[in-house]
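Q: How do we represent a protein-ligand complex in a form that can be generated token by token?
A: Start from the inputs.
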Amino acid sequence: MKINIFEFNPIAENTYLLYDDTKECVIIDAGCCNDSENKVLQNFITDNGLTVKHLINTHLHFDHVLGASFVCSHFGVVLEANAADKFLLEGMPAQMKMFGFPPVAAAPVIGKELNDGDVVEFGKQKLHVLHVPGHSPGHVVFYHKESDSLFTGDVLFRESIGRTDLAGGNHQQLVTGIKKKLLTLPPQTTVYPGHGPATTIGFEAENNPYL
Ligand SMILES: [Zn+2]
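Then emit the structure tokens for the protein with zinc ion bound:
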């Protein structure tokens, strides 16, 4: 499986595009926020002859959702996310105003729910959905066992964890979830976070000051 990383929008959000030799791909957290960023994503897909099978979200804070409407309308997919984060979409216009972004015409809606234990398939690949709330109530992460890859959104960063002072946040729940569900994965697992550089489960188990 190949992994392409885009850093989009003023919040420097990582959008991941995963694909294999079947040319099917998934997009995780489309954060592209304007025409030129949309074009970067679109060109990559076109240049590599890819077919978008899924748009899946770790959670629904606006910086992870800015490109969702574009991806859905251009590639004929629906936004897939956990229903416990639905309220964040409803609050998206207000949240964007708070961060100084121009207003969006309409926030996207969840077209398919992702729940703990679900498997997202594309090409020959399987992504396992793990629910790890605490940064937001509906936060999920995606685990690709075959390549030891974990897409953690805003749950786990290199030497940090997600903030828990936003709506629905819970610090204890977040720490417990990381310890139970993520630190128990093989230490060589590469962690691809929603912001900043990649790390590994083994490195975070030893060095993350919050765990
Ligand atoms: Zn977030």
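The chain has one domain: 2-207. Residues 35-47 form the longest helix (13 residues).
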